[in-house]
Design a protein that fits this description.
It is a single chain. This protein is mostly beta strands. The chain has 2 domains: 65 residues; 216 residues, Fumarylacetoacetate hydrolase, domain 2 (Alpha-Beta Complex), CATH 3.90.850. 13% of the residues lie in helices and 33% in strands. It contains 6 helices and 19 strands. Strand 1 and strand 2 form a beta hairpin. The mean pLDDT is 95.
């Protein structure tokens, strides 16, 4: 199942995308629940939400896509340094703030992004030059929790996963380095593009799915989920050890090598750049960088 949250005629709706990817049939939801996006579907649990009849079907071309969860209820949980080549490039470039250096971490490095920084595909990534001169991108697979749990074992973890989306873990590297903690550098307004849709778990092969990112027409990142050091079940086990995961929680699973900070000299984002991330079968998440309005 492929679910999108979108705006049409001034109203927010949540719907199921047809198999050919061209049409959307909305769920029959009141406007206040539709504004929650995929959260409204997850809140229904095992109950099947009714779809509207075919006369309400929309085409993807006529709607404005929003993030599948426009505002998560809690911080987006993020994993740092989960691809070894990325660990090496960050250490080599002098951007390591963890003390790990170029060694593989012994346990998952977990941080978070504020829910207010989530934006949808085609919405602008805002570059505030008074705050950062080192704006970077990070293409990541996002895991969406569908069933609550605490002390979830790796063996049982996938039963708690509803599905997946794409996340761009946008980062202000200079803030990250200055504060030696990542919340400020990761949570600026617009720093969490998410989308274009959410797909249910059975549609993606966690062991072999490509993650690619282009800046303008240059392929910068070309990774694969098989290269994750800590796989999704291990991440869920680590995070849920003492913290109850809830339906709608989102875990960004880390980025492959090829971020802007890893080049010599660095290739940080500038106004006008377009960042395009592709993870089949989720689709393409793309956002243009725009100067923060004066």
């Amino acid at each position: 199942m492929r679910i999108v949250t979108y705006r049409v005629d001034g109203e927010v709706e949540v719907g199921v995308v047809s198999q050919d990817g061209l049409a959307i049939t909305p769920f029959d939801l009141p406007s206040d629940r539709a504004a929650q996006g995929l959260l409204a579907v997850l809140d229904a649990g095992q109950a099947a939400l009714p779809l509207r009849n075919t006369e309400h079907t929309r085409t993807l071309r006529e709607v404005e896509l929003l993030a599948p969860i426009p505002r998560p209820r809690r911080n987006v949980l993020c994993i740092g340094k989960n691809y070894y080549a990325h660990v090496q490039e960050i250490a080599r470039a002098g951007f390591d703030t963890t003390g790990v250096g170029d060694s593989a971490p012994e346990a998952p490095i977990v941080f978070s992004k504020l829910p207010e920084c989530v934006i949808g595909s085609e919405q602008p990534i805002l570059l505030d030059a008074s705050v950062t001169q080192e704006l970077d991108y990070e293409a990541e697979l996002g895991v969406i929790i569908g069933r609550a749990g605490r002390h979830i074992s790796a063996a049982d973890a996938m039963a708690h996963v509803w599905g997946y989306t794409i996340i761009n873990d946008v980062t202000a590297r200079d803030l990250q380095r200055r504060h030696r903690q990542w919340l400020l550098g990761k949570s600026q307004d617009g720093f969490c593009p998410m989308g274009p849709c959410a797909i249910s778990a059975e549609e993606l092969d966690l062991e072999n799915t490509s993650i690619r990112c282009w800046v303008n027409e240059e392929l910068r990142q070309d990774g694969n989920t098989e290269l994750m050091m800590f796989k999704v079940p291990a991440l869920i086990e680590a995070i849920s050890a003492g913290i109850t995961l809830l339906p709608g929680d989102v875990i960004a699973t880390g980025t492959p090598a090829g971020v802007g900070a890893g080049f010599d000299p660095p290739k940080f984002l500038r106004a006008g750049d377009r960042v395009r991330i592709e993870i089949p079968p989720i689709g393409i998440l793309q956002n243009r960088v725009q100067d923060y309005p004066a």
